[in-house]
Amino acid sequence: MTPGAPRITPLTYDELDDDGRELLLGMIHNDEGTIRARTAADPVPSFIGTMLRHPRLFRKWAPFGGALLMRGKIPVRDRELVCLRVAWLCQGSMEWSEHVKIAHAEGFTTDDVERVTLGPDAAGWADSDRIVLRAVDELHTTGTITDPTWAALAERYDQQQLIEFPTLVGNYTTTAYVQNALRVQFDSRTGGLAAR
């Protein structure tokens, strides 16, 4: 669980109005790492239930995050490296545990996940993974990407992917900040930051 009581209580399904239910059913569901369309039978995640207290904001933000997750141009492995590293650097328990499940469904090993916590200089990374992690770390610590790291990314990514990369990092940083600051609770069975 996120330390402390939630600062804003999430809405339950019964508390949602028609707009809220429409927004909820338009969201995805992480089914043990498999991303699928949400149904009315799925529980309302605490994060979504919290965000639905500000439906106007959530109506704009959710499709943006969904587009990056489901229709982004960054390769899936790179995307999950970004999500995991951002979650770890921000100590985003909910984000981390959700993306550990997704990463495993995409072929990550437990050792891969553990190595994300150690960063780009850990032994065992392929050069392609190392550069993604380094770019995340640079953005997190300095707000930009150094020229050598950018050049390495540009050898692999086209212009659209290069634009998307810092956007992806920023979106998941924002998500972690919101979840952390609002003390959004998560299912403790997911393991939080201990998940591997």
Describe the structure.
The protein has 196 residues and is mostly helical. It has two domains: 13-70, no CATH class; 76-194, AhpD-like (Up-down Bundle), CATH 1.20.1290.10. Helix content is 59%, strand content 4%. The chain is built from nine helices and two strands; from the N terminus they run αββαααααααα. The chain has helices at residues 18-25, 46-51, 55-70, 76-90, 93-105, 110-118, 127-142, 147-156, 159-181; strands at 28-31, 34-37. The chain has a two-stranded antiparallel ribbon. α4 packs parallel to α7 (127-142). The longest helix is centred in the C-terminal third of the chain and has 23 residues, at 159-181. The radius of gyration is 17 Å and the shape is globular.
| Uncertain ranges | none
| Order of the strands making up the biggest sheet | 1-2
Shape: globular
* Helical/strand content category: mainly alpha
- The Cα radius of gyration reads 17 Å
End-to-end Cα distance: 16 Å
The CATH fourth-level homologous superfamily of the largest domain: AhpD-like
Tally of domains = 2
Q: Which whole number gives the mean pLDDT?
A: 94
Strand content: under 5%
List the keywords.
196 residues, mainly alpha, AhpD-like, 2 domains, two-stranded antiparallel ribbon, 59% helix, globular
Quick recap:
This protein has 196 residues and is mainly alpha-helical.
Task: Reconstruct the topology from this structure.
Elements: H1 18-25, E1 28-31, E2 34-37, H2 46-51, H3 55-70, H4 76-90, H5 93-105, H6 110-118, H7 127-142, H8 147-156, H9 159-181
Antiparallel strand pairs: 1-2
Helix pairs in contact: 4-5, 4-7, 4-9, 7-8
GO molecular function, one term: peroxiredoxin activity
InterPro entries: AhpD-like (IPR029032), CMD-like (IPR003779)
